[in-house]
UniProtKB/TrEMBL annotation:
<feature type="region of interest" description="Disordered">
    <location>
        <begin position="48"/>
        <end position="82"/>
    </location>
</feature>
<feature type="signal peptide">
    <location>
        <begin position="1"/>
        <end position="25"/>
    </location>
</feature>
<dbReference type="InterPro" id="IPR028994">
    <property type="entry name" value="Integrin_alpha_N"/>
</dbReference>
<keyword id="KW-0732">Signal</keyword>
<protein>
    <recommendedName>
        <fullName>Lipoprotein</fullName>
    </recommendedName>
</protein>
């Protein structure tokens, strides 16, 4: 029997091993081809479930503010005008008579009445008369006063004058004068509708100073610093 050379035997064995092992290596050792995954990625899932907020250029509308409780509680009713302080005829007893701009009987300054009277160094005496009228004379809504004063300088004559005082917070402030004449006493004074109605006694032409035969009703209106007579009516007077 012929012997196979050892070299050839080794080569044949090596070939067989290579043929068998190669197929198995090809089947088991082949690296799997990496292809695109059919499963959704984590990023795509997040993008699908969480929509991205798109920027906007619109400014958010301001929220309306609720009214303040204090503001809503404020009343819209206008405040009532302060009440005028009253003035009475009794206030005139301590009033000032005349002024530097409107002098009484030529005196350069006012005369301060005390209990309705004033006495000067010249011997003259001024006395506030009882007739007095209270009412709004200048249209400011406060009651003013119109009174009468008489001055006697020591002789037989007694000169009567009307005086008007403005109501300044309940205090009489001298305003105007109107002379009536010698021995012409005042009977009554009323003030209404911005006018003063004065009833006083006087005389007709040709009568003596002591003869009073006319009862005159004069209507006066305040005109600056004067009481101006706007009308009068006469009636016979028999004492």
């Amino acid at each position: 029997m012929r012997r196979i050379p050892s070299a050839l035997t080794a080569l044949t064995l090596l070939c067989l091993l290579a043929a068998c092992g190669g197929g198995q290596a090809e089947q088991s050792g082949a690296a799997p081809t990496v292809g695109p995954s059919a499963e959704p990625s984590t990023a795509s899932v997040l993008n699908a479930t969480t929509p991205e907020a798109s920027p906007t250029s619109e400014t958010p509308a301001p929220q309306p503010k609720s009214a303040s409780p204090t503001a809503s509680a404020i009343s819209t009713t206008p405040a009532a005008a302060p009440a005028k302080k009253p003035m009475t005829c009794a206030h005139l007893a301590q009033a000032r008579l005349g002024s530097s701009k409107v002098p009484y009987n030529g005196y350069p300054d006012y005369l301060p009445l005390a209990d309705g009277q004033w006495s000067g160094e010249d011997g003259a005496t001024v006395t506030l008369q009882k007739p007095c009228g209270i009412g709004d004379l200048d249209g400011d809504g406060a009651d003013d006063a119109v009174g009468a004063v008489a001055i006697n300088s020591g002789g037989t004559g007694t000169f009567y004058t009307l005086a008007a005082w403005r109501n300044s917070g309940g205090t009489p402030t001298f305003r105007a004068l109107a002379d009536l004449g010698d021995r012409t006493p005042v009977v009554s004074i009323t003030v209404a509708d911005g006018r003063a109605t004065v009833v006083w006694l006087t005389r007709g032409p040709g009568r003596g100073m002591a003869e009073l035969n006319i009862k005159r009703t004069s209507v006066y209106k305040l005109s600056g610093s004067k009481l101006t007579e706007v009308s009068h009516t006469d009636a016979p007077y028999n004492p």
